[in-house]
Design a protein that fits this description.
- By secondary structure, this protein is α+β, with helices and mostly antiparallel strands.
- Among the domains are: 56 residues, DNA polymerase, domain 1 (Orthogonal Bundle); 140 residues, Dna Ligase, domain 1 (2-Layer Sandwich).
- The protein contains 14 helices and twelve strands.
- Helix 4 packs antiparallel against helix 5.
- The longest helix has 22 residues.
- 33% of the residues are buried.
């Protein structure tokens, strides 16, 4: 069995990085996002320049100011953080559907199905996040979640400059225990202050030192948690990347084999993708309030545009009309397109409310469901729409 390829992505000093985009004069300066000193505030995130003074997250603001009298305090802008996080997670989701978000700025990815090496995948992901969001991020890669996370922490710790690490750390399969061995025991998941104290009394100060104890010895001293500690110390972790199965959006996209600048081809592609998304909405019993268009130029620059419709819909005609309007508003005529995608969000399973004037819409709904049923039974080509028929 081939080893898994697991990535751990973490945005560097995320809140501070977003604040630097809002106010570039903060770049390189010791500043922190957090509460005011006089209101029992604490630091949420410190810039890397501030960390040189010992300022870190969860530190009382008053103490942070004593460590760094010139520290600049910035109030948080939560909506900006959410929007920035969403842009990054959309990029991450483009890489693989097997995503486990850990927080607003951190996620695991299972990229085992991709042909590239973990290093190639990590470099490509980091470069795209840097380019499209202007946010630095660090990535750890290994054959399991435990080692990928520790590798990422290690890579960031190795960076000693007052700038974002933007690090990539790879642990090759078969070298997990070797990588962990010299690290301090508190770098291992499950080793809190009390467990660390007990281990140090036994003379165990590194993960490698813990790995020399047999599972039987660890179980005798620590019970079941001892078995877990022993496995982790040897770099073993069989946990899967836990995907959130709550459907938040339905989308479909295509990357062209060569860049396309033909308007007719691009619009036909949008209509085909829109019809597929509409079919998936109906199949899963959803209606969507938001319709999105994603487009990527030949230089990999990517844009997303969206529109909200008055009532949630699963009708192809509405999705097609909205995406074509979005396309015509964003596409400079003749500009080559590398990728195009159609998506829907704000999904709901509530029945669509129709009034007496909606008979046409109701008829379309019945027709679409009939087409869906025919295609389900006899294949996609049993019924073709006008835009799906190519002239020979």
């Amino acid at each position: 069995m081939k080893p898994r390829k697991i990535l751990h992505m973490d945005l560097d000093a995320f809140f501070c990085s977003v604040e630097e985009l809002r106010n570039p004069t903060l770049k390189g300066k010791p500043f922190a996002v957090g509460g005011q000193a006089g209101k029992r505030g604490v630091i949420s995130t410190a810039s890397y320049a501030a960390r040189k003074y010992g300022v870190h997250s969860a530190l009382p603001t008053a103490q942070a100011l004593r460590l760094c009298p010139d520290l600049i305090l910035v109030s948080s802008w939560h909506s900006d953080y959410g929007e920035a996080s969403q842009r990054v997670m959309e990029i991450v989701n483009d890489l693989s559907p097997l995503i486990e978000p850990l927080s607003i700025d951190e996620a695991f990815m299972d990229v085992s199905d991709l042909a590239e090496t973990p290093l190639q995948i990590a470099r490509g992901l980091q470069a795209r996040i840097n380019r499209e969001t202007n946010l630095p991020c660090s990535i750890g890669a290994a054959s399991n979640k435990l080692v990928a996370k520790i590798a990422n922490d290690f890579g960031k710790y190795q960076h000693k400059e007052p700038t974002s690490p933007n690090a990539i750390t790879i642990v090759e399969p078969g070298h997990e225990a070797e990588f962990l061995a010299p690290l301090p025991i508190n770098a291992l998941w499950g080793v809190g202050p009390k467990t660390e104290e007990r281990l140090k009394k036994l003379g165990i100060i590194t993960i490698g030192g813990l790995a020399t104890f047999s599972m039987q010895e660890m179980a005798r001293m620590f019970g079941k948690s001892g078995l877990d500690l022993s496995e982790r110390a040897n770099g073993m972790d069989t946990r899967a990347v836990e995907v959130d199965h709550t459907v938040k959006s339905i989308s479909q996209e295509v990357t062209f084999e060569r860049d396309i600048s033909d308007k007719k081809v691009l619009e036909q592609t949008i209509m085909r993708l829109s019809a597929h998304v509409g079919s998936q909405l109906r199949k899963q019993g959803f209606s969507a309030k938001t319709i999105r268009l994603k487009i990527r130029w030949s230089n990999f620059e990517t844009h997303t545009r969206q529109i909200s419709v008055p009532m949630p819909t699963d009708h192809d005609s509405i999705i097609i009309g909205a995406t074509l309007d979005l396309f015509r508003n964003i596409w400079p005529v003749g500009k080559p397109v590398r990728l195009i995608g159609v998506g829907t969000a704000q999904l709901s399973k509530e029945p669509i409310q129709l009034n007496l004037l909606d008979s046409t819409s109701e008829k379309e709904g019945r027709l679409l469901r009939s087409v869906d049923e025919l295609r389900e039974r006899f294949g996609d080509k049993i019924v073709l729409r006008g835009f799906e028929i190519r002239k020979k």
